[in-house]
Amino acid sequence: MIHARQVRVIDENGVQLGIMSPADAVAEAERRGLDLVEVAPGASPPVCRIMDYGKYRYQQSKRAKESKKHQHAVVVKEVKYRPKIDIHDFTFKTNHVREFLQEGNKVKVTVMFRGRETAHPEFGREVLARVLEGTKDLHQEQIDVNNVKLEGRTMSIVLSPSK
What we know:
Elements: E1 7-10, E2 16-20, H1 22-31, E3 35-40, E4 47-51, H2 53-69, E5 76-81, H3 87-102, E6 106-112, H4 121-134, E7 154-159
């Protein structure tokens, strides 16, 4: 599959064998029981390496899996509160918010209003202020709850974990 007239050949140890025709390079690779792989087709002359291609592909896939293992996808968790929430329920849910922030996830804190509760958005702001106070050591941004707007029947803020 190599179409160049001459190629620079590098053996499996990284030693240059010189410039030769592709047929000679393939013969040398077969003599060693390995494959000839074109690694730099844009070079002049193209560079080919003698290697075990199957082993090379296996190592590439292992490296890709290893790099994916160390990645952490940011997940947005949501915790929903009500304006007239009881103290026990509030502390229970706030502990969940703390856990999510400690794990490194973003947390969307939502206060849901029902019926005539929408007439008093200050109760929802009070709940959000209590959540911010309970998690102030774990999130990074400063949020002014007085500027949080009531969107339909919900009021929400997003907390990012501190680094």
